[in-house]
Predict the structure.
Amino acid sequence: MPAPHNPFKSRLAAGEALMGAWVGLADSYAAEITASAGFDWLLIDGEHAPNDLRSIMAQLRVVQASGSHPVVRLPMDETWAIKQVLDIGAQSILIPMVESRSQAERLVRATRYAPQGNRGVGAALARASGFAAVTDYIATAGEQIWLGVQVETRAGLAALDDILAVEGVDGVFIGPADLAADMGFGADLGAAPVVEAVLDAIRRIAASGKAPGILMTDPALAQQCLDAGARFVATSIDVITYALAIRAAGEAARALRDG
């Protein structure tokens, strides 16, 4: 029995544009609600949300049971952390702050068993193999793993062509917030030089045959990214969606009381 099919990987490889959302509330109950919204993919955030391995696994379970595909973002590019998140069942991962070809090559090796890579062999213990029920897991797992890397600094953009040349990198996500800050524009994602840099990077990634991705909550900017060739695009963040909605509800409640 081979490793489970990764529809996120195959759909992106076929050229589809997939719409997603950020899952940052770090709770499986909230993730289950978000998974009912019909997004193509959901990003379980281990970088800026208060997640650990067990909370990521709990959210993986509920998202995998839905029609959305889970992507896990780790907070770092450590081989041991990649090994752990793959073993708990993630098949699609996103790694932040990638700035060189050598770093990208190291990440690819971390997702593959020897001789192609250096992922530690412990599949018999792992949820990823159905606890040894997937008998051909080690031989077939690599084909179903999707690796995305984040380019979000001027150094990363300068190395973009080298990163795109790395076999095994399936997608490149442009991080507009960090890029805007690195370019000296603070939190202004809509600054003209930032938008120009983002769209140029998306076009270059698309031309390479890899999938370009981005998180953009501004609908007009998100549309520009799609028009430029972005193929995994997140438009919502659960934390912000909830915060805005509950604050509006509180304001409405106070208005009722106060007449």
Observations:
- Strands lie at 18-23, 41-45, 69-73, 92-95, 146-151, 171-174, 211-215, 232-237.
- Residues 7-258 form a domain with the TIM Barrel fold (CATH 3.20.20.60).
